[in-house]
Amino acid sequence: MLEVRGVDARYGDAQALWGVDLEVAPAETVCIVGPNGAGKTTLVQTIAGLHRAAAGTITVDGVDIAALPGHRVCDHGVATVPEGRRVFGHMTVRDNLLLGAYRPKARAAHRETEAQVYDLFPRLKERARQHAGSLSGGEQQMLALGRALMALPRLLLLDEPSLGLAPVIVDEVFDAIAAVTATGVGVLLVEQDVERALSAASRGYLLIEGRIAAAGPTADLRDRADVRERVLGM
Amino acid sequence: MSVRKGLSILAGVALVLAVLAHFNTSLGIAPYLLVLATSVLFWVIQATSWNILSGYAGYFSFGQAAYVGVGAYSVAVLTGRHDVGYPVSILVGGLLGALLAAVTGAVAFRLGALRGEIFALLTLAVPFILAAFVRINRDIDGGLGTTLPLPDFPGWVGDFQHLIFLLMLLVATLAVGTALWVQGSRLGRGLNAIHDNEDAAEALGVPTFRYKMLAIVLSGALGGLGGALLAVRNGAVQPELVFTLTVPLFVIVMSVLGGRRHWAGPVVGAAFVTVLQDELAAQELDQWGNIILGAVLVLFVVAAPDGLFGRLRVRPWLTVGVFVPVLVGLLLSGQYTELDAILYAMVAAIVAALVVDRLRPAPGAVSSPAGHLEPSAAPTEGARPTEPPATRPAGAAPLADLPQPAPPPVPPVAQSPPGELVSVAGVTRDFGGVRALDDVSLSVSSGEIVGLVGPNGSGKTTLVNLLSGAMPPTRGTIAIGGRTTTGLAPHRVAHTGVARTYQIPKPFASMTVRDNVAMAVMFGRTGASLASAREAAVRHLATVRLEHLADALPDALNLHQRQLLEMARAIAAEPVVLLLDEALAGLNPAEIDDAVAVIRRIHAAGISIIIVEHLLRVLNQLATRIVVLDRGVLIADGEPATVLRDPAVVRAYLGRQRA
Amino acid sequence: MTAVQAALSGALIGGLYALMAAGLSVTWGALRVINLAHFGLILVGAYLTYQLTTAWGIDPVLTLLVSAPVLFVAGAALQWAYDRLNIVEFNSLLVSFGLLMITIELTTQVWTADFRHIDAGENPYGTSAVHLGSIALPISRLVALGFAVLLIGGGHLVLERTFAGRGLRAFAQDRTVAASFGIDHRRLGMVVGGLAGVSAAVAGMVFALGNTIAPAHAYEWFGTVFAVVILGGIGNLLGSLFAGLGVGAFSAVVAVLWDPSYEPFVLFLAIILALVLRPKGLFTRRAAA
Amino acid sequence: MRRRVLAAFAAIVMVASGAACSSKQESGGGGATDQSPIVVGSTLSLTGAFAATGLIHKIAGEQFVERLNAAGGLLGRKVEWTILDDQSDTAKVGPLYEQLITQNKVDLIMGPYATPNILAAMAVAERHGYVLPQHTAVLAPQLTYPCQFPAWSIGPTPNQFIPNLLFDAVATLPTPPKKVAVLTSQSGSAAFVTDGLGDDKTGVLTVAKERGLDVVVDRHYPPTTSDWAGMAAEVRDAKPDLVISNSLGVDTVNALNAMKQLGYTPPLVFSLFPAPGPLLGLGPASEGALSVSIFEPNKALVDKVGGDAQAIVDEFKTKATAASVAFPVFETQAAASWNAWEILASGVKAANSVDNKAVCDALHSKGADTTFSGHLAFDQKVNNFWPTTLGIKQIQNGEWVMVWPQDRAAAPIKAPTS
């Protein structure tokens, strides 16, 4: 479904990504691991259209989205759960969710999707009228996920979903990710908790200094020397 | 350039100007240039006065007219109505300006929330109030205006124009000298830190309230003196003259156009805008004059959003190289008056600098990629242009591949006597109706590393904020090393030996990594000078192995490096206890191991540590004790192994994943 | 009785303050542009109403049919320029100050600096009133309040209840994340800028109904309007309505019970007090952090 | 880096000053010959808040200079007028006059418009010993410079003179007013008529009491006032016979509008210094309103002045209409302007020189001849304010008509219609 081919990204003169290739299939969770500063967030932003690719193609179901501005990328079924959750704290939980359904297609179906999201995260329903800023970190992560689901994505980009969350909450978040994948959505996961990422995903990519250094099933990756040294610290 | 040298050059320039003005007739300088120069100096005073608070510390003020008005009316009332001599009334103008500033500051700065636009509105209101007060009060002038007598002055001064020029020059020199001195002093560094991140500055030991008060009082005194001289120059004072919005608007225009972070910015801005305005008025353009002025303003702000001086300074030779030939050329052509020539030469120099800047951006003027997520994921290559390539291991991530030299030991801290270091007794903290901490008691002995864990929203960060003094407890007391810190300002708490890091790093964005750390040394318990603080900073950077990035700006650092910078800054304050608030969040295992090693080194130097962390693997390695909070209540406190088996802890926090 | 009359009249004129403040507040809050040129747009709105009414004898309220579209385009164009040139916050203050100067001088070129006034013959609203016993409610002020409630109330509903409104609020808080959900900030920003222009057209029209117009007025509006924007809470539309009414009524009562000369003194002291007690604005809901 | 910049600064200063020296010597040579024009300099508020009236003074002045040159100029030399725009900003007036005198080296100066600006210009004129004819400064006691010559005399003590003039005029009405409401703008040129100035507390308030009138409303408002509803309500509820609006510009218009909106029209209104046009624009609401004037182009008055008066008045109307002035009538402001120029011309002729000291002395000893105010003699003891020719004018049938004092009136004062 998602195919990234030969993508470069730059910040001014500085190049952050070098010829990145990757793909994600429907109902598949794929993780990207690598040291800080390897370009993982840049990669997610480039796919989401928030950063312009300097070269290469990014196709979603055959449509090249690499040149589209950020607000057009979601039209092709790509939704993002950004690092640090970034819910709209001054808006209610429900308004956050409805915002997720901003694009016309999602807007038309927003009632049904909203019900589905509440089924997945009952706690959001309880708090629908509360300001998102008053939620706990775990609840905010649920909301960020729910908000992305409201966009009826076929591809979900998850950037550091466990960041700053208590273990008991991280469990819930990863359960929810699994549930989402089960509905047929492709998930691209960036996660510093490498153990978690490798166990949640079926395939993975090792990104080092803006280049894909290794790729394969997570079970294989775990055993590779460079992964163990560079990201697992063993 | 040292401050002292700067001041002596400034004094020299002032002296030259004074001599030129004194002999203007014999030198053939048109008397009108003296008049114009007096106007320029007035605006230099006001723009500089504004800049000391609003530029350096970032507290945008719309109240400059208040100081001008108070100064002018001091002269109007004392000299115009009560025959008090000019010298006294001018000084009183400065004093009252300072007093007014002190009152404004005391109201605004006592309340931490009065920042940004709220502070701006507060200051906007002050001139309105004063204007109304003058109009109501017939003992002042009831709004009728006051005329002033011609001052007496010794004959050697020359005529009145010489007198007022010299007075303005004196105060302008004082103002610019003050701004120059402030910029190079601890006060200036502190104000800069306040501008970048006030909370972090306070936590590092910067006495923010005192510094802001100092800045606003200096600003008020200089503004008041300038206003008093305006009254003398004009010979008449009306409320419409002094309490007008055009004063703050033009002062802001001048300072921002010139550049707010450097003392010379307002000087350049004031000179340029005043000369331009004057030239436009003299051209008999009527409305077109203001239209051109407006257009120039729009163009230059768009072209140089961070101020003209910054652009000129990057290329001094280009600036002078364009200015001087154009000036000389125009003068020799005989077609232009001196003033036209000066103005056109200034415009030519500015335009040249801006155009060249556009074509070939100067080093150090890298603009951050606007409109994108903060570049925490910025690449490790490039983006650190100030760093000489040789010191960077080519093609390697800075941390992981570094050869592991024996890191220098953290300088040992004056050991506090063993025993209770941190004591938290019955502490409760409410936010509105929500109780974030409920009757928490906790004690930390020296040498411990205490892990603080709990679900999100359980009160961990609140406890860190209470310990660092960022907020007071609703009830209960906190003591550090036997000394009660409850009720102390955060910078005082810092001086008792508490340092902290922030969950989301809060570096001072306008300072290099080295200076970020040097700030902590300067404002820490020992209070070193900037020069020695910079040396010490390099040592602390070596402890966290960031020394190769000492000259980079924080924007160019990735998350891990920023968190290391937070730690370097914290230990630079030479604390006895260090509060680490999720300092490892977002790091991958390899980086975590690296950070853990740093923390161990810090601990080995005798610093006790309280660490908030979700990663139990880390706490198991590091902590001597674990404390668990749940919904504001302390539910467990003890050995890591014991605590992590506690059923209540498992239920509330750990879930199915055990340590 | 006099005080009641004054308070009511003051509150009604507060509708005008609210109209002037609303556009400024929403572009500041949502787009982070402090658009001083907004005062210029209000001025142009007032002159357009004057011009169309006196030259063609159109009913002053109907002049909105012309001035609102014109100022919509102007507001949208301004926002387009600010966005293109990446001008936000305090630099926008400077740039828009330059633009305000230009606007004021251009209106002076066209209409001269003379005081202009829509004569009674062409202005059916100018001097008539609704009488309730001894209380008179001037029509021009009722128009001000009516438009304020309509425009601000409508704007509030749009912000709260529609997808576009949510999009704008989201954009105000986090433009990057908002963009990733399909919010085209350029277009939305231009629409908001345009609507702020429309509010300026309405404010200008209302001002021209009951006052004489001169280019220099643009500066005189600063103090009160900024006070209303900040007291109401930046970006808070309903807040600016309430703050407008409150400031209007409060100053009128001070003027009657004490003396008009004390009004700015008391008003701005009260504003400082209000800021000290409620620094986030009087009408901002307490959002949990 | 800083050192280099500072060095550059110093270099700039040196070069600038050096260049200034060299160019100066070239331009200093051309001394004034008898054929060179006489240059008069002034600022006017051509933009900003005072621009509406500033334009009237510009048109009147240019008209005067044109006529003067057509008649051969002064002392056989052409007259040139340099006008700079002070943008209605008092702070700019002083430096601009300094510029005119020291850089442009004008021979003579003319005052700017509006009292605060005139005070600022007077300080400069006094420093340089220039003669300052000025058209519109009314704050007589503050105009202490001996070579300042007022062209619009409202007497040395206007705070006594104006109330008495007004009350004398309305006392001739069939039912003279008994209750007065006083609204006062807290600005330099209006408030002193209500409250007096300095130690002299005489003003509308005290004079009204002396004459047994009842002051039912006394309100002072800041010049920035924009909401008149409160004052309007108070006036309405106090039911005065006469509303005295000691105000400037359009304040009276706004106040009357606000009253009208409350369903109230005061029986009789006096407006101290109104902008002439807008009050007429109120239509019937302003019929019968009173104000002060030194000249109105009423036929009777123009005939009485005689000479060129009609031609001047007509020519002004053509020019002002062309410049789209809202109220293109040669009334008090334009007449004051004309007076000021005639004072300057008279002084130069009498002194037979453009030496400012000589002109000043000549004006003191010989006075000046004016078209609209006759011969003026300047008394230094009262700041050169000559016996006032100020009268009361009234809106009758939509036009300003001089109605008081009787010997200079074009028509008798009319009683309120209601």
From TrEMBL, chain A:
Annotated family: Belongs to the ABC transporter superfamily.
GO molecular function: ATP binding
Residue stretches in coiled coil: none
Name the record gives this protein: ABC transporter ATP-binding protein
Regions crossing the membrane: none
Keyword Transport belongs to the record: yes
InterPro entries found in the cross-reference section: AAA+_ATPase (IPR003593), ABC_transporter-like_ATP-bd (IPR003439), ABC_transporter-like_CS (IPR017871), BCAA_Transport_ATP-bd_LivF (IPR052156), P-loop_NTPase (IPR027417)
Pfam families with a match to the protein in the record: ABC_tran (PF00005)
Domain ABC transporter, residue spans: 2-234
Keywords assigned by UniProt, alphabetized: Amino-acid transport, ATP-binding, Nucleotide-binding, Transport
From TrEMBL, chain B:
Key words of the record: ATP-binding, Cell membrane, Membrane, Nucleotide-binding, Transmembrane, Transmembrane helix, Transport
Annotated Low complexity bias: 392-403
Database matches in InterPro entries: AAA+_ATPase, ABC_AA/LPS_Transport, ABC_transp_permease, ABC_transporter-like_ATP-bd, BCA_ABC_TP_C, LivM-like, P-loop_NTPase
Residue intervals passing through the bilayer: 31-53, 88-111, 118-136, 160-182, 213-232, 238-257, 288-305, 317-336, 342-359
Segments for region (Disordered): 365-418
Signal peptide: none
Biased composition (Pro residues): 404-415
Membrane topology: Multi-pass membrane protein
Protein's name according to its UniProt entry: ABC transporter domain-containing protein
ABC transporter domain location: 422-656
Record localization: Cell membrane
UniProtKB/TrEMBL annotation, chain C:
InterPro entries cross-referenced by the UniProt entry: ABC_transp_permease, BCAA_transport_permease
Topology with respect to the bilayer: Multi-pass membrane protein
Chain segments annotated as transmembrane: 6-26, 33-50, 62-81, 93-112, 132-159, 188-210, 264-283
Keywords: Amino-acid transport, Cell membrane, Membrane, Transmembrane, Transmembrane helix, Transport
Protein localization: Cell membrane
A Pfam family this chain is assigned to: BPD_transp_2
Family: Belongs to the binding-protein-dependent transport system permease family. LivHM subfamily.
Name of the molecule in the record: Branched-chain amino acid ABC transporter permease
UniProt organism field: Asanoa siamensis
TrEMBL record, chain D:
Keywords: Signal
UniProt xrefs under SUPFAM superfamilies: Periplasmic binding protein-like I
Residue span(s) of domain Leucine-binding protein: 37-381
Record carries keyword Transferase: no
PROSITE patterns, A to Z: PROKAR_LIPOPROTEIN (PS51257)
Region forming the signal peptide: 1-19
PANTHER family assigned to the protein according to its UniProt record, in alphabetical order: LEUCINE-SPECIFIC-BINDING PROTEIN, PERIPLASMIC BINDING PROTEIN OF ABC TRANSPORTER FOR NATURAL AMINO ACIDS
Family (UniProt): Belongs to the leucine-binding protein family.
Name recorded for this polypeptide: Branched chain amino acid ABC transporter substrate-binding protein
Lineage start: Bacteria, Bacillati, Actinomycetota, Actinomycetes, Micromonosporales
